[in-house]
Write a structure and sequence with these properties.
Keywords: Heme, Iron, Metal-binding, Monooxygenase, Oxidoreductase. GO terms for molecular function: heme binding; iron ion binding; monooxygenase activity; oxidoreductase activity, acting on paired donors, with incorporation or reduction of molecular oxygen. By secondary structure, this protein is α+β, with helices and mostly antiparallel strands. The protein has one domain: Cytochrome p450 (Orthogonal Bundle). About 50% of the residues lie in helices and about 10% in strands. The strands form four sheets. The chain has a six-stranded mixed beta sheet with strand order 1-2-3-9-6-4. The protein has a three-stranded antiparallel beta sheet with strand order 5-13-10. It is globular, with a radius of gyration of 22 Å. It starts with 14 loop residues before the first strand and ends in a 7-residue tail after the last strand. The model has no long low-confidence stretch (mean pLDDT about 90). Bound molecules: protoporphyrin IX containing FE.
């Protein structure tokens, strides 16, 4: 049922939070500055006074629920507004958009990522992950440190390209796409920071963005064309077989747009978020010991497969805590479609709302000691006691993330297999700084020494 929209008449204007309160920190420590905005809002819908750009910040779980879920029909994701406008130059219309085109893409892609469907590909995915992890034997033998972000990218690309893209894109090509995505993520920052600048106005980063988008198309367009008319239950063949609500087949543009989007979301999300795990474990020896103990007792030093996952409960809690602190989809901007009110505040049509799991998930009014890494926040009792939208790393409502099941199962397999086979030691326990690009990503590399967990590993 759609909740009626409150009449805009009796509402008040939003309180304004001026930029000078937080500007000094915005460049130095953007996460702290954004959470600072959220703390100042104190649960109200407030207006951020960022020069010409004056979006509304929505932090309270009840309000988030209305925007993303209950009243999502009045808060659109489409438009050339904050964030999505610049990214549309790469992803076009499709699964990362809104309206009828998005709805066709969502209906076609959703069945590929249900819990059941992901579980059905798990045996194959687990075998690939076990193999890809074992390639770390070489640096372990040589005593050579590894860049764990690069290793995770290698492991994820192999696992996902095989199971969701039917090997139509080689792991090497997928790594090339990831490199171009890295360039996209950083070159789009000026436009994310100055969201009111028209796209026609040249800005720093535009050329790098265009070059990277071209490199992505050079890899993915041939794969898209080759898959036309073929069988298979992979992402690209499924898109070609899909049709619009009025029965027309998708055109090449939409298949291309959705392929580019799905390669991006299946790769950089998991790769980026896992990078923070290792320094956090080094800084929280009790968490590290409990995680290791669970993996050892469940898998007994053997490769970890799908049959072990239901018993890796603490591993799952560690991942829950990781995406609380580092929700890759850190910002979900929305546009008000018809005048309405939210939390007693008047919202005109066209206004931009900023909903951010990064902010709500670090607010002291909802989380004790919010910056501490504490997986025990995710015991079933504590989860039940919390508002559904105090924690929404995967969004909610009609645009809820398609990849949630994939993320948890894949990440559990990667982490558990790494720790079943090796002892990983970070060279520095310093946490990588957070870069707020199109997705949230670590600004610094994390280097690890790889030691064999038992004598059988490095013969
Ligand atoms: C740590 C991992 C991930 C996080 C934190 C995450 C987070 C999110 C969030 C917050 C949204 C909602 C955006 C909005 O409401 O505007 C979203 C959407 C989406 N995610 Fe994820 N995601 C992750 C991994 C994945 C993976 C592995 C996939 C692969 C299938 C994926 C596919 C998608 C898609 C297709 C959408 C758009 C859905 C739609 O608009 O209908 N995500 N994700």
């Amino acid at each position: 049922m759609v909740t009626p929209h409150p009449a805009p008449t009796r509402a008040r204007r939003a309180r304004s939070v001026p930029l000078r309160h937080v500007a000094p920190g915005l460049l130095r420590d953007p996460v702290r500055a954004l959470v600072g905005f959220g703390e100042r809002a104190d649960g109200e819908v407030v207006r951020l006074n960022v020069g010409a750009f004056r979006p509304y910040l929505v932090t309270d779980p009840d309000h988030v629920q209305q925007v993303l879920g209950d009243r999502a029909d009045n808060f659109g994701r489409a438009g050339d507004g904050a964030f999505w406008g610049p990214l549309r130059r790469l992803f076009g219309d499709g699964i990362l958009g809104d309206g009828p085109v998005w709805s066709d893409s969502r209906r076609i892609l959703q069945p590929l990522f249900t819990a059941r469907r992901v579980e059905s590909v798990l045996p194959r995915m687990a075998a690939t992950i076990v193999d890809a992890v074992a390639e770390l034997d070489a640096p372990a033998r040589a005593g050579r440190p590894v860049d764990i972000g690069a290793e995770q990218a290698r492991i994820v690309c192999r696992a996902v390209m095989e199971t969701f893209f039917g090997d139509r894109i080689s792991a090497a090509d997928a790594l090339r796409v990831i490199q171009a995505q890295d360039a996209i993520a950083t070159s789009v920052i000026p436009r994310v920071l100055v969201p009111f600048a028209p796209l026609a106005l040249p800005m720093p980063g535009d050329r790098a963005f265009r070059d990277a988008a071209r490199r992505i198309d050079e890899v993915l367009t041939p794969a898209v064309r080759a898959a036309r008319g073929s069988d298979g239950d992979d992402v690209i063949a499924t898109l070609w077989r899909g049709s619009t609500a009025d029965g027309r087949p998708l055109d090449e543009r939409q298949v291309r747009n959705d392929t580019v989007a799905m390669v991006a979301v299946t790769t950089e999300t998991t790769v980026n978020v896992l990078t923070w795990l290792w320094p956090h474990l080094a800084r929280s020896p009790r968490v590290a010991a409990r995680l290791q103990e669970e993996i050892d007792s469940v898998a007994g030093g053997h490769p970890v497969g799908p049959e072990h996952l239901p018993r890796l409960r603490y591993t799952r809690m560690v991942l829950d805590e990781l995406v609380r602190l580092y929700p890759v989809g850190w910002l979900a901007p929305r546009q008000v479609l018809r005048p309405t009110t939210l939390g007693g505040v008047r919202l005109p049509a066209g206004a931009t709302l900023l909903v951010s799991p990064l902010v709500t998930q670090r607010l002291a009014r909802h989380w004790d000691d919010p910056d501490a890494f504490d997986p025990d926040r995710f015991t079933p009792e504590r989860v039940r006691a919390r508002h559904r939208y105090a924690y929404f790393p995967f969004g909610g409502g009609p645009h809820q993330c398609l990849g949630m099941h994939l993320f948890y199962l894949e990440a559990q397999l990667i982490v558990a297999n790494l720790l079943a086979r090796y002892r990983l030691r970070v060279r520095s326990p310093r946490l990588p700084a957070v870069q707020l690009a199109a997705a949230l990503r670590p600004r610094d590399r994390v280097e690890l020494d790889v030691l064999p967990a038992h004598a059988g590993v490095v013969a």
